[in-house]
Structure formats: structure tokens, C-alpha cells
Amino acid sequence: MPAAFELYGIGHVGVLISISAIASLIILRCRKNQDSARAKSALTLLTFCCFAAYPINLMAWETTGLVPTMDAVIPFHLCDIAAILCGFALITRHPLLCELSYFWGLAGTMQGLITPNLAYDFPNPVFLSFFSQHGVIVVTALVLPLGLGWRPRSGAALTVWVWILVYAGAAFAVNLALGTNFGFLMRKPAGASLLDIMPGWPGYIACLIAIAGLFFFILSLPFKRNQQK
Questions:
Q1: Measuring CA to CA, how many Å separate 16 from each of 134, 135, 144, 172, 219?
Q2: Which among 42, 68, 186, 219 would be 20 to 30 A from 209, CA to CA?
Q3: C-alpha span between 173 and 171 (Å, rounded)
Q4: E strands of the chain, at which residues?
């Protein structure tokens, strides 16, 4: 029987430290010279990991022999989409893709790292695939502004918030059709999370949307001075 996930246990804390170290290393290499061979290699590997996150997740479930839920098989959680967006953002540096990667990564995926909705602990393959996916998103979200000098456009926080509403509408429709829980729009996650202090369904959905807008605004503040010039 696989070991149950322990919130802030050795495995959890260890992987958080590892993700922080990887992000710091890539940022430092890019800040020193983003055109250097080492920086380009690091960015190429990061891009590959973004696109490989979903296949790795499928292989993890196959390796364990456990039966995954439909939510785990279909790549329609916000972080599934964010990982792909991050990969394309690193390749194209498209303004909207970078904005979605930054705001969704730090406001949304970061919560998944802090309070994961996860049943299995290290070294279970599902544990490793979960944190590898969430890790590459957060690393990309940090590397874009801190390593590559990217900056969001004026009004980006509002734009990204509107796209969250678009995702929520699509996810809710899929949930109704398939009986899934993408975006945790049908019920709260089983594990401890920020949603525990919110009202029951559907009240917590309104809270999530409002908090997302607040987080996006806060994340836009470091760039306000540059946008006003």
C-alpha cells in the first residue's frame, strides 16, 4: 500500500526546497547572460518539462498500477493547461501567454505546491509527477520576470482574471457532462486547502473568483511603476 501523503512532511518540504533551488539556479544563469549556452540549455530543459508534464502524469499512474480518476487522466485542471501555456510562453514570449503563465502560476499553481490535493507521498511516481508539473509552472512564472526581464502589459491582471472566468465556465460545463471536478468547481478538494475556510458550495466559488482577482492585482503591483513610464 503506497504511503499516504504527509502535508509538510520530509518529502513535501524536500521537494519545495528542490523547486526553489532549481528556480534560483535558472534565474541566476539567465540574469548573468540569457544568451549563454548554459542559460539556453536550462530554458530548453524547462520548456521540455512543461510539455512533458501531462505524459509523465499518465506514465506515473501506469507505473503504480493504481486506477486513476477521470480528473487525473483528462488534462483539464487549471495546472494542466498552465503547464502547456508555460511551454509556449518560453518559446514565443507572447505577451498573453507570459501573463497567463505568471499570474496563474503564482496565484494558482503555487497554492497547489503549498497545500497539494495529493494522496501519495514520496517516492511514489504520482507524487513525483504532481510536483514536477506544478514545479515547472511556478519556476517558469518566476523565471519570466526575474530571469528574462519580461514585464506584463498595463491591465494584464484584469485580462488574466477574465480568462479565469472563461476557464471556469468551460470547466463547469465539462464537469456537468463527465461528473468530474476540474477547477474544484463541484466540491472542495479532499485535502487541506485554502477552501476549508470558505463557505460551502457554491459560495466558495465566488470567494475563489474574488481572491483570484485580488492575487492578480497584488502580483501586478511590482510592475506598476514601469507601466506608468
A1: 10, 8, 19, 31, 21
A2: 68
A3: 5
A4: none
The three grid cell numbers given for residue 36, joined into one nine-digit string: 549563454
Q: Where are the alpha helices (DSSP H) in the chain?
A: 10-33, 37-64, 70-73, 78-92, 95-104, 110-114, 125-146, 156-178, 203-220, 224-228
Reference 4, options 124, 105, 89; nearest CA is 124
Q: Pick out the chain residues at pLDDT < 70.
A: 1, 226-229
For 186, other C-beta atoms within 10 Å of its C-beta total 16
The pTM for the full model equals 0.94
> Phi and psi (nearest 5°) for 4?
-70, 145
Closest by alpha carbon to 83, among 41, 116, 131?
Answer: 131
User: Can you tell me whether residue 4 is helix, strand or coil?
Assistant: strand
Instruction: Tell me the per-residue pLDDT of 154-203, one tens digit each, with 9 for 90 and over.
Output: 999 999 999 999 999 999 999 999 999 999 999 998 877 888 889 999 99
